[in-house]
Amino acid sequence: MKHNSPFSIFNFQFWAFVKKEFFHIWRDKRTMFILLGMPVVQIVIFGFALTNEVKNSQIAVLDNAKDIASASFIAELDASRYFEIEKNLYSYNEIEAEFKKGKIKLAVVIPQHFGEDLQHFNKAQVQLVADASDPNTANQLTNYATAVIMDYQKRITNDRKLPYTIHTEIRNLYNPQLKGAYNFVPGVMAMVLLLVCTMMTAITIVKEKEMGTMEIMLVSPMKPQMVVIAKAIPYLVLSAVNISSILLLSRFVLEVPINGSLLLLVFESILFTLVSLSLGLLISSGAESQQTAMFISLIGMFLPTIMLSGFMFPIENMPLPLRVISNIVPAKWYYAIVKSVMIKGIGLHAIWKETLILTGMMLFFLTLAIKKFKIRLA
Amino acid sequence: MSAVVVENIIKTYGKKKEVTALNNISFEVKPGELYGIIGPDGAGKTSLFRILTTLLLADSGKATVDGFDVVKDYKEIRKRVGYMPGKFSLYPDLSVEENLNFFATIFNTTVHGNYDLIKDIYQQIEPFKNRRAGKLSGGMKQKLALSCALIHRPSVLFLDEPTTGVDAVSRKEFWEMLKRLKEQGITILVSTPYMDEAGLCDKVALIQTGKILSINTPHGIVDDFKKPLWAVKSANMLHLLNQLKEKEEVEDIYPFGEYHHLILKSQLSKESLEQWIRNSTTENVQLQMVRPDIEDCFISLMKNY
User: Fold this and answer.
1) What is the rounded end-to-end Cα distance, in angstroms, of chain B?
2) Could you count the other beta carbons within 10 Å of the beta carbon of residue A356?
3) Residues paired with B286 in a beta bridge
4) Which residues lie closer than 8 Å to B84 by C-beta, 6 or more apart?
5) With 0-12 CB in 10 A as exposed, 13-18 as middle and 19+ as buried, what is A135?
6) Helix/strand/coil for B28
7) Does ipTM top 0.95?
8) Chain-chain contact of B102 with A20 (C-beta, under 8 angstroms)
């Protein structure tokens, strides 16, 4: 019965179909360019433009002391790579006016007698005024500024031993520089694979229905399931190209190391690609027009991937219902896997659960897609 | 054994089966016959073809193609029939040659193997074999689609409105090709809304709103038209039509080319008819007796049904 199995793929019909599918992709240069260019553009955009890291933030300084101590403190601030002093202010009232102009994100106020206070009372105050209309940035900036102040304090108290001081020593494991790339590279991989595989397979199968070529395909000895699987093959290849370009870019341009096994990472990516392809096939069996297929893929797949995979927003902070729903988003598991393998460098023993879940999802979606595939028109 | 047998096929659409596409259809096609299904748009032609090519399931009734049941043995039928849907359904971004090769391969054959069958047709488009199918003219698309439907030497060929939207010359050529294919022993079922094409078939079934009005040879259908048919013409055709429509003696009158075709309830000689017309209308009327064609028969069958 080997001949009747939908998976008997080693025949001419099947490969003729795959070849034809490659022609479709190759001859639609615009779409091909988008599919292959998208991961590159996304990596570049996320890597250089859409970063939430704080670098060279412009700040204003109101120095009421104007003594040696305040001057060296300001120099220290300016020297840090986080800050750039945009303006020196002369009165407290100017601060708000500056914030309203929108150029500065933080104002540092040094009180009168800053140096004297330090010397005589061993104690001085510095006020940090932050623009909290963007709370995350405000929070980060005040943290960085505090760190700079601590450094400064450490330096001037170097020769003197203070009684009872607690030093917090922070070590950021796996990502010592707190680079955003460590977070978004796995996210972009999930997003690109899902977009290429799910949306494109769904659209191309529905396109055959719309064009009427599916009608001819059905009235042929070609097994309907084979039509579907043959359509998925070129997208598997495209995804392999995309995975490589993302990994190369992130390794050599964004300098995100691949700490774990590359083989394991590729294997897991192919597994996720297969999950996405099966999802695309499933969508295509239900949708009747290319628009419907695109909407289902975008709303049903793409948005949950961005929202609920943990890539944009941490899942731990979500209310319980969303946390439960996030479990059925395949990208969540893939995202966790890529982070573990790529960033933390751990092996299969730590991610076997996620791998198993993805495998289960793939089998479930694929079975459903083949079962639901219509062997007739209605 | 008949090539196609259709018995009491009923097909409805809609949740409450409110639209009846095929209403108890039965007919039979002999091997090697060129069989025409003639009817206007919405008559149910495409539904019928889709049921016979196993693409749709009928609500009730039975049909076989080449001896195989369209429901139970759909896989067998899909291997041996050729189907050309009404809409141009080849890959527009593949070239003529690539389309043909592709269809040959998925039917487990090669272009070379059955080249003699499509030679006459394919030779006409061969100069354009590297052109993308989407860039072909309507007539050439048709030829390519026919070549693709024939490439596996089907035993029964289903052509759903193959000449709709094709110019008059290409239509004529197309029918000549069908005649040659018939000589090769292929049974052909062809549907068309054009009455003038009915005469080119061996046998025709006239179909209207899901019902078969008549099955006969083209000659037989015309011979069944018993009443004398008159062609009338005047300077103001619309006025003439409206005036004669009112008359009690008129069974039917309808515009037909540059004439109106007129059928009377009673037999009249030409002289008495002329007299009657002069009494009935203010128009100056030309009058002659004509031989009915398929369209007249169809109109009369439709009215009497």
Assistant:
1) 32
2) 11
3) B233
4) B145, B146, B148, B149, B157, B158, B159, B160, B162
5) exposed
6) strand
7) no
8) yes
Q: Report the C-alpha gap between A24 and B95 in whole angstroms.
A: 11
Q: Which two tokens stand for residue B126?
A: 């061969």
Point out the least confidently predicted range of A99-113, A146-160, B256-270.
A146-160
Interface of A with B in 215-274 (CB under 8 A): 215-222
> Can you tell me the distance from the alpha carbon of A48 to that of A166, in angstroms, rounded to the nearest whole number?
37
Q: Please tell me the distance in Å from A226's CA to the nearest CA on chain B.
A: 11
Q: A139-161 burial by CB neighbour count: b if 16+ within 10 A, else e?
A: ebbeebbeebbeebeeeeeeeee
CA distance A11 to B107: 12
User: Which CATH fold topology does B4-223 show?
Assistant: Rossmann fold (3.40.50)
Cα angle A179-A184-A185, degrees, rounded to a multiple of 5: 100
CATH 3.40.50 fits B229-304, yes or no: no
Among A212, A220, A378, the residue with its CB nearest the CB of B78 is: A220
Q: What is the CATH number that goes with domain A57-156?
A: 3.40.1710.10
Mean pLDDT of B137-144: 88
CA–CA separation, A233 vs A201, rounded Å? 9
Best of A216, A231, A375 to substitute, by most chain B Cβ atoms within 10 angstroms, is A216
Q: Quote the tokens at residue B63.
A: 């049909």
- Is B24 part of the contact surface with chain A (CB cutoff 8 Å)? no
Domain positions in chain B: 4-223, 229-304
Any idea where the domains of chain A sit in the sequence? 18-50+179-372, 57-156
Q: Do B102 and A16 touch (CB under 8 A)?
A: yes
Task: Say whether residue B19 is in contact with chain A using an 8 A CB cutoff.
Answer: no
Whether the predicted pLDDT of B189 surpasses 90: yes
What is the percentage of chain B residues whose pLDDT exceeds 70? 100
CB contact under 8 A, B55 and A215: yes
Angle between helices A262-286 and A348-372 (to 10 degrees): 20
Task: Calculate Rg over the CA atoms of chain B.
Answer: 23
Instruction: Using pLDDT thresholds of 50, 70 and 90, give the confidence band for residue B11.
Output: very high
Q: Which helix (H) or strand (E) holds B250?
A: strand B250-256
pLDDT > 70? residue A4:
no
Q: What is the 3-state secondary structure (H, E, C) of A165-199?
A: CCCCCCCCCCCCCCCCHHHHHHHHHHHHHHHHHHH
Query: Cβ A217–B106 below 8 Å, yes or no?
Result: yes
**Contacts of residue B57 in chain A, CB cutoff 8 Å?**
376, 378
Strand partners, A110: A63
Best mutation target among B11, B55, B76 (most A Cβ atoms within 10 Å) is B55
